[in-house]
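Researcher: Can you fold this with NAP in place?
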Amino acid sequence: MSAPLEGKRTLVTGASRGIGRGIAVAFARAGADVALGYRRDQSAADEVIAEIEGLGRKAVALAADVRDLDAMRALVQGSVDALGGLDVVVANAGVASRFQPLHEVDPGYWQRVIDVDLGGVFNTLHAALPVLREQRSGVILSISSVAADACGANGAPYNAAKAGVNALTQTVARENAELGIRANVIAPGFIATDMGEALLEAHGELILKSIPLGRAGTPQDIGELAVYLASEAGAWISGQVFRIDGGALGASARRVV
Ligand code: NAP
């Protein structure tokens, strides 16, 4: 039996660390070649390239800020050039660093989160869709968060941006289904990454105690779901939001991620 993503050409934004890295490596283990988008940390991206090449797959890292549509068009074209085409696109890059009630939120921080977490997904899909539509195939995965539904206190910009990602991606699924393009959302709960560390600092151990399965999620946990959804096993799945959170949604009224 061949690997689930054998020979697939994939692009993952925010792949220099955290969840994006976990998805990129899981894709490579599943047989895919990977273009890695990142913003500033070239050495971290180089580490991921080495890990993927160690698995016998092709990898290329391209710097592009997801807030810049022209840069995202260049990232998509660079991925197509390097890998020989594009089959799977993962809009993963995101930020969250401040946790405050809405009346204390600095408007500049609001705008930054909306621009990266929601605008970045718009730019990624806007840049990639012409390629997928032209070839009449492709899979899109957006990474939102259980925060989109849980609407925990002190996370208004992030909660709103992630709810937008859910709506935007489900709309894209409907607009492109007749061309054979699928689009789904992965909505993680608390995952042990740099962003996860910031959440732990802000909210303490309460986050971990609210997870019925008894541990934080890992980038690998998200990578496994991403492989399934990107593969032929998920051929009849589109327009859905998949929560992956150790059973936590609804377990606590004070959800924060
Ligand atoms: P992370 O460890 O902080 O990594 C963020 C990644 O996004 C990095 O590769 C970073 O690149 C990239 N990035 C940030 N701003 C960017 C920009 N403007 N343009 C291009 N790339 C940019 O975060 P993570 O925990 O892996 O989160 C990944 C995604 O999962 C995010 O969308 C996040 O909202 C979502 N999520 C995370 C959790 C969690 O608990 N960790 C839970 C639910 C959802 P550089 O290093 O080059 O800056």
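Model: Folded with NAP in place. The longest helix spans residues 107-135.
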